[in-house]
Structure to design on (500 residues):
């Protein structure tokens, strides 16, 4: 089944077809953080959405190149650097480190490339020079270089691909130097901002452009094309970036190369907190760290952020986080029981299936089919979860239906476990199915985190000592575990760790 995604460019759901003629590789660029503060929960919704897209593509078998830029020079950063009387690198470095740590806390896969704007100044300058050479960019009296929307449109190019713009209201010759402006004030925008005293020592020297620094929009055009080529498959971001940031990225890139920039544009919707737009004055402004301090885990926050469809406004609430905790506990309990069942000696049904499987090899085609069907009935068709999950994910990442499939599977698995009809093989297959699904959801399991690695290592050492019949050593390790607050019980299913 093919993956279908909503493309902001066509305003319709389209089958994802990569540019790679072999159909195997997919290049994806996500607008990354502007590292001037800790990312808030609204930002995290977008980054977790990006992670979902990446994991889905990999689940579908694509070899993904995931690029996420780090915006480490722009208007807001420079203002903060001046206020804090620090250096650009020192200031942005701390927030970049925090961002990467938070990314890990939410179990987002690290992008393959995280280019920094300040490491790509030469590429940015080269791109601006190209636009000047093509007559689409010009140097204004203030020394800054601007993108000419009129010249761009004069070349037959379309400004306003992601949203409709009313050019009749535009006044010729108007310019905007700030990176952020509304579509009502569409104007020539800055590519290179000439050095001004407020910039302090944040500037670069360019022979052709003069002393200055890049605008925010050109940074993304230069870095994305540098890593992924002049045309690539997917570009993601929050819906607030559609205009002007993404529209300007298209104009700069297509203006310079004359080629289509991006095939699929994906945008994540806004997030409300407790039913209102997040703001510091309302007290509903949360960074990830604020929520961790309230006792929630990255896993619970990730789950909550992944419950709503990415194109729907999501109401993030603390109640919702408590709900996430309950939902995850249901999954964990089921997985715990499955692990126990999978590790247990073969129950009757599992042994029966094992015998049948061996016999099947010698059977004719028809008998084989019949036997396999029978085996599936006994095992509970664990692949159903993967098939159902894939089908709904293919439908523009229908995540709520994906969770519905997961919880239906949990219910059904619990039922089978209770009536003891799954067996060790069935339980192992069910776990394998879960692992496939979790490669997309990325919520993992709690068990590993529950027992510290040091305790697990001690338990393993004790098992090894017992095997070697060194009971003295095994007892000493048991005492050590006790001193650290853990008891080890030998059960018929192997040793079990319990917290005292
Ligand atoms: Zn960007």
């Amino acid at each position: 089944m093919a993956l279908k995604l909503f493309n902001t460019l066509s305003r319709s759901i389209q089958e994802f077809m990569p540019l790679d003629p072999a159909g195997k590789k997919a290049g994806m660029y996500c607008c990354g953080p502007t590292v001037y503060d800790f990312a808030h929960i609204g930002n995290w919704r977008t980054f977790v959405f990006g992670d979902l897209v990446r994991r889905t593509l990999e689940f579908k078998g694509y070899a993904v190149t995931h690029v996420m830029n780090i915006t480490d020079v722009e208007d807001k950063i420079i203002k903060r650097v001046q206020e804090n009387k620090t250096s650009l690198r020192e200031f942005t470095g701390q927030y970049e480190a925090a961002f990467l740590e938070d990314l890990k806390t939410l179990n987002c896969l690290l992008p393959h490339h995280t280019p920094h704007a300040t490491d790509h100044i030469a590429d940015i300058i080269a791109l601006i020079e190209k636009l000047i050479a093509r007559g689409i960019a010009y140097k204004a009296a203030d020394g800054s270089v601007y993108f000419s929307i009129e010249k761009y449109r004069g070349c037959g190019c379309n400004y306003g691909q992601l949203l409709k713009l009313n050019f009749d209201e535009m006044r010729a010759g108007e310019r905007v130097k700030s990176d952020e402006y509304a579509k009502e004030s569409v104007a020539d925008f800055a590519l290179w901002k000439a050095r001004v005293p407020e910039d302090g020592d944040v500037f670069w020297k360019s022979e052709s452009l003069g002393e200055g620094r890049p605008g925010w929009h050109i940074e993304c055009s230069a870095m994305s094309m540098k890593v992924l080529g002049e045309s690539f498959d997917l570009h993601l971001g929050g819906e607030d970036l559609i205009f002007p940031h993404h529209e300007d990225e298209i104009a700069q890139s297509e203006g310079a190369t004359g080629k289509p920039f991006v095939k699929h544009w994906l945008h994540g919707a806004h997030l409300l907190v407790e039913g209102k737009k997040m703001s510091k004055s309302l007290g509903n402004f949360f960074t990830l760290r604020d929520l961790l301090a309230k006792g929630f885990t990255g896993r619970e926050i990730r789950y909550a952020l992944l419950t709503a469809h990415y194109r729907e406004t999501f109401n993030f609430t603390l109640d919702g986080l408590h709900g996430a905790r309950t939902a995850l506990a249901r999954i964990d309990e089921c997985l715990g029981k499955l692990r126990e069942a999978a590790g247990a000696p073969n129950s009757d049904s599992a042994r029966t299936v094992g015998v049948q499987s061996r016999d099947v090899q010698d059977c004719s085609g028809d008998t084989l089919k019949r036997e396999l069907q029978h085996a599936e009935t006994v095992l509970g068709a664990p692949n159903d979860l993967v098939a159902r999950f894939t089908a709904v994910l293919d439908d523009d990442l229908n995540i709520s239906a994906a969770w519905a499939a997961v919880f239906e599977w949990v219910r059904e698995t619990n039922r089978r476990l209770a009536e003891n009809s799954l067996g060790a093989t069935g339980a192992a297959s069910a776990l394998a199915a879960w692992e496939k699904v979790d490669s997309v959801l990325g919520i993992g399991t709690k068990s590993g985190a529950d027992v510290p690695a040091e305790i697990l290592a001690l338990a393993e050492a004790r098992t090894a000592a017992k095997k070697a019949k060194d009971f003295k050593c095994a007892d000493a390790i048991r005492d050590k575990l006790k001193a650290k607050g853990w008891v080890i019980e030998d059960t018929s299913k192997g040793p079990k760790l319990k917290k005292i």
Q: What stands out?
A: The chain is about 50% helix and 15% strand.
